[in-house]
Amino acid sequence: MSNLSSLTSAQLKHAAELKDKIESLTQQLNAILGAPKPSAKPAKKGKMSAAGRARVAAAQKARWAKIKSAKPVVNAAAPAPKKKFRMSAAAKAKISAAAKARWAKIKSAK
After folding, report:
1. What DSSP letter does each residue of 73-94 carry, written as one string?
2. How far apart are CA 56 and CA 62, in angstroms?
3. What does pTM read for this prediction?
């Protein structure tokens, strides 16, 4: 389809006449076939009733119960978590001394 700004006035008039003809023919066809006129009212959204929601909730609970019953029961007393690794004071001092030595070497090179 070409750009409307590039059309001549004669082409625009012809296009408008064709559009009117199409609308007229559509109305005649709808009158013959008995098609209802399109309404401008938007379609209603369906809402679920309280009973419907209750049925869905019951079905979901049943699905979860089935899944949970199929799994083996895990012992309530879980194993104790592993202790965190803690660095000794001597190890911290050794790392600190190595870092200080590195920085001293870098500063002395400048």
Report:
1. PPPSSPPPPPPPP---HHHHHH
2. 10
3. 0.30
Tell me the C-alpha distance between 110 and 104, whole Å: 10
15: which residues sit within 8 A by CB, 6+ positions away?
Answer: 7
Which residue, 35, 39, 14, is CA-closest to 26? Answer: 35
Residue among 71, 70, 68 at smallest CA distance from 60: 68
Residues 6 or more apart whose CB falls under 8 angstroms from that of 35 comprise 29
Per-domain boundaries in the chain: 8-33
State the average pLDDT over residues 94-107. 96
The letter for the amino acid at 70 is A
pLDDT at 74 over 90: no
Return d(Cα 50, Cα 36) in angstroms, integer. 34
pLDDT, tens digit, for every residue of 48-58?
A: 999 999 999 99
User: In which residue are the tokens 């959204």 written?
Assistant: 45
